[in-house]
Amino acid sequence: MAGATVIATDADFEEKVLKSEKPVLVDFWAEWCGPCRQIAPSLEAIATEHDEITIVKLNIDENPATAAKYGVMSIPTLNVYQGGEVVKTIVGAKPKAALLRDLEGYIETKA
């Protein structure tokens, strides 16, 4: 079974995200963000159910350099990284089913 979400910081972002062998979804979030807290259980579930993608959380208040580097202007912003590059950006809170649809091609979906 897959692990749960991983915490990243400015210091280890390159190692945990950019150098990853598999796709990584990074949740740019903050404690004060209601929609961020709203999608957290869905991201945790996806992390547990799909070991073909890594779900990483990066707190923008504690790690502003990475958020600024990738132009994160509103949260939640979810970036999918593959091969060290952003390949998809999802902005705003969505239900789990919508997140899974957005991640098609990066995760195995069960019919």
TrEMBL record:
Q: Which gene name belongs to this protein?
A: trxA
User: Which Pfam families does UniProt cross-reference here?
Assistant: Thioredoxin (PF00085)
Lineage of the species this protein comes from: Bacteria, Bacillati, Actinomycetota, Actinomycetes, Kitasatosporales
List the coiled-coil residues: none
Q: What family name appears in the similarity comment?
A: Belongs to the thioredoxin family.
The segment(s) forming the Thioredoxin domain are: 1-108
The organism's place on the tree of life at top rank: Bacteria
| Name under which the protein is recorded | Thioredoxin
Alphabetically list the UniProt keywords: Disulfide bond, Electron transport, Redox-active center, Transport
